[in-house]
Task: structure prediction
Amino acid sequence: MTVDQGRLRSDVEATAAFGAIDADEGRGRTVLAGTEANRRARDRLVDRLEDAGLTVEVDAVGNVLGTWTPPNADPDAAPVVAGSHLDSVPEGGIFDGPLGVYGALEAVRALQEREIDPDRPIGVVSFTEEEGTRFGGGMLGSAVATGRRTAEDALALEDDEGITLREALEDVGYRGDDDIDASTWDAFLELHVEQDTRLEAAGVPTGVVTTITGIAHAKTRFVGEANHAGTTAMDERRDALAAASEFVLALEEAGREAAAAGENTAVATVGKANVTPNGTNVVPGGVELGVDVRDVDREPMERIFERAIAALEEIEAERGVETSMERVLDVDPAPMSERCREALREGAKAAGVASTELHSGAAHDAMRVSRVTDAGMLFAPSRDGISHNPKEWTDWDDCARATRVLAAALERLARE
Result:
């Protein structure tokens, strides 16, 4: 299996120009859903899909699907689909998302040029708002495509300026009227950069994902009493930030224990803090923390939350503050189907590319799709494990190797 590395590189680099930012090192981009940069990225993708002879559909939330129906394929057969997303986080890298979209397209072009004639149609998809940066939640387009969320509910979501997803998509011309239903697909594969160092450390160019981690987010609040930092005695304080600091350390310890008890896949993080009134000379009266808990098994995640709640109870008793915790996101771990994993393993062998198996510590659209049909993921190495950063980098040779594996796996699945 051969792919055109230069063509793949050209596609990814052209997409990197949309929303490009100045960066001291590397190449960065900011492409939020429904923005002008996003429109330009979508327009180019549609042009490239049509150039390759794919029929393009756009659904109500802007998911884009191009379908190649080979001459001898059954046009009514359930298609095999591959893809990812084109949006980014603010000041993100150029590979996260676009490599999966254009890797899928390059895989189709490689099959076409080899005059491969599979039994099923093959699709290339770009999901809307995977990152969740502008309209929140993450994996929004794939949630709609899998029936997890209604289009009307998604379209009503607002950004920080009160603009709805409906308005943003209409403004860029990508609120379509086609129906993209992932449950009708025979299988789905997603190529993505690893965003970790395991492949790089092992010297292996591709990784077949076993399970995508479960992820739970919670808002944790601490209510104390704001007071003057100079006149409030230390033994008279109800310091919400000091209380929250104890919780941060307790959550970290719970995560470390869960990781040590398992296969080092559990993680627990406090990544966000809002402090009120947030004045240097004021004892903090309120704190809201953003908590992130992940693992490939549900049970360790629940143990971490049990430890967190126990810590809150102790902190309330010792510090005289009020606490609460509310889960705002809760997604189960998503095992990838053995059928798709086997197709990727065999695809790697057919392409002459070494592979290994590993889990994903980040969420991806494939975990949504895995709830309604067979799904698999393939990782390409990330230099130093850096992602969501202009320094994100995957060597072009590795991009091409992974795309060769993807093409071979798609051929295998489309012949079943």
Q: What stands out?
A: Residues 240-261 form the longest helix (22 residues).
